[in-house]
């Protein structure tokens, strides 16, 4: 777990940095809360807004040349990632799935909203000094930078 926990912290740090300039698309409101609790401050948009998937992707990508696609890692999320990527690229924009692929490859979570818990488990179990300096674990709330 030590290596994968450290890898996850590193990936989240890179994601937070990129999110300062590039919006993220997630499935639902809890995914947004999970990413916010990890310190992401940029635009994060939920697909579940009562509109068609295509309409929602058009709205979100209207003002950006690039979008980070970050649905869950279950079967539905895989299909959603592929569809959103196709829609975004069909509009002549870039769909970044790098972070989705990296997080999924660690096999620590099945959904985005569980990322704070996975990082907390990694910090506690491996006592990663570097991560402990960057994150404060708040019981019942999650992790704050």
Features of the shown structure:
145 residues, alpha/beta, Dna Topoisomerase Vi A Subunit, Chain: A, domain 2, four-stranded parallel β-sheet, two-stranded antiparallel ribbon, globular
What does this structure look like?
A hairpin with a 3-residue loop joins β5 (136-138) and β6 (142-144). The chain has one domain: Dna Topoisomerase Vi A Subunit, Chain: A, domain 2 (3-Layer(aba) Sandwich), CATH 3.40.1360.10. The protein is built from seven helices and six strands. It has 145 residues and is an alpha/beta fold.
CATH-scheme architecture: 3-Layer(aba) Sandwich
Q: Tell me the domain tally.
A: 1
Order of helices and strands: HEHEHEHEHHHEE
Number of DSSP helices? Answer: 7
User: How much helix is in the residues?
Assistant: 40-55%
For the secondary structure, the number of strands is 6
* CATH class type: Alpha Beta
Q: Estimate the mean pLDDT confidence.
A: 85
Strand order of the largest sheet: 2-1-3-4
Rg calc: 15 Å
In terms of DSSP E residues, the strand content is 5-15%
Largest sheet: 4 strands, parallel
Shape: globular
The third-level CATH topology is Dna Topoisomerase Vi A Subunit, Chain: A, domain 2
Terminal Cα separation, in Å? 21 Å
- Oligomeric state of this protein: single chain
> Runs with pLDDT <50, length 5+?
126-134, 136-140
- Structural class by secondary-structure content: alpha/beta
